Amino acid sequence: MSRRGKIPTRLMNGWAGMRVTLKGLHRVRKRLADGTEQTYHYAWRGGPRIEAERGSPEFVRLYTEAHARRKTPPPGTLFTLVAEFKASAEFQALGDDSKRAYLSYLRDIEAEFGDMAIKALEDPRVRGVFKQWRDGMAATPRKADYAWTTLARVLSVAKDRGRISVNPCERGGRLYEAERSDKIWTEADIGRLLSVAAPSLASAFMLALWTGQRQGDLLRLPWSAYDGKHIRLRQGKGGRRLKIPVGEPLRNHLDEMKRVSPAILTNAYDAPWTGDGFRTSWAKACAKAGITELTFHDLRGSAVTRLAIAGCTVPEIAAITGHSLKDVEDILDKHYLSRDQVLAETAIRKLERRTKSVNWGVNRG
Fold it and tell me: Which of 25, 49, 71 is the last residue of a domain?
């Protein structure tokens, strides 16, 4: 008999369990009526309970089978459409941050409607069912709108591929109406933030304010994208390629930075930021500066506003920030400049310069 054959089965099972990494395994401890504690294992949080001894071959088999069933969506249900959406080119083309946001809402959709038959989508009443689900999240209107938009996108891709004939979530409207006319980073706000922000956050702030780019694109930006005069990048959302001239304040800031990583933006440990890590540190800095109503994303709109106040045209602004012409116009028209006194003052000064040669003396008879 081999040396292995002399080892008790109980220990062999235990060793086998230690060798296998069961990702997502969820453990729950419960106190029984007699006062003792019992540990129950589930294939994942909210998943099926594994009725076998932990570490045994049977335990691993049941775990594996549960996950196999989870990955194979029941045919003819909304689970299938969600799975097809995740594998679609439309989803794969999204940036990492967008994918992460989508996946969060896709899990909610699967939990609520995963077993709904695809044929049910042809019933006009199903739109009311979806609306009722969205209205149940009315206390958090932004979440409700994101959830609805995600479901509508899944069904849009399914319709485009001929899987369904109608998308019951088209033109669903919004519960959340954002008014951003007051959400501009003023010079005072900028000074407050920079006075307390760590250098790693100040660099991100400068890049956002002078380029108008999204947080995710800036966190991924490598030093190789900067040639001393321009920053080249491809936006994660939409894939637009930009060559952004670097203004002198930003250029001086970048040239003084130490290049401790391939990524321009790094945390206090000289490592590239994770999205969660940056958001946490950013929130702490804003709280320290007493800034509660402004977000990092507002820097994107603020960049548009600053460029407009400087006299840039809509096409010039779009060439820097990567917005479409229509989006720039919408930002300036609806959200940011409706109450901007600086722009009004600039407009009058321009008018004055153009009319200096006119004699404005009024003949009062």
Answer: 71
